[in-house]
Fold Cytochrome b5-like heme/steroid binding domain-containing protein.
Amino acid sequence: MAANSILSWEEIKLHNTESDVWIVVHGNVYNATKFLEDHPGGKDLILDVAAQDATDVFEEAAHSSEARDILPGLLVGRLKGYGEAAPPAVYPVIGGAPTPAATQARERRKRRSKKAARCEERSRHHGSFRRWRSSLSWLQDGGC
Ligand code: HEM
């Protein structure tokens, strides 16, 4: 198993015995089988969290940096989906309908874009009027 494998809980759950035990700490999946007998805290503490997320118990035991240095050597992969971004925000929906606040916000956006379209139309119109007026005074001044 390559240390950079992405592992699902389905796969991790298969490694839950004394002869094959994986644990998950901070989204990293470790094969603790060979370390069981060497664990200063005893093998049972690790077996209690076999094939589970052991992050909390691992941290509660306030392991030293020496203990943490052992972990990379036991790494089998990363937990699938760990630390992924939250899904994009959506309009809050109550009973299938947008909330009044969401509806108001949408209405405001619609009004704003209508206003912007009106303004654009007017400035186009004024622009041609200005062009017409300036060519008129240019003609009055004798043209070319
Ligand atoms: C593969 C994962 C683990 C490794 C590499 C590991 C490593 C170690 C090491 C080296 C120590 C000696 C003290 C230290 O240096 O901090 C220790 C102590 C301890 N570990 Fe772990 N440990 C692991 C998992 C766990 C888990 C899942 C628990 C669950 C509660 C646990 C609980 C403890 C406790 C309570 C002690 C203190 C034992 C004592 O002082 O009598 N460890 N561990």
In short: Helices lie at 9-12, 43-47, 55-60, 65-70, 100-140. The first helix runs from residue 9 to 12.
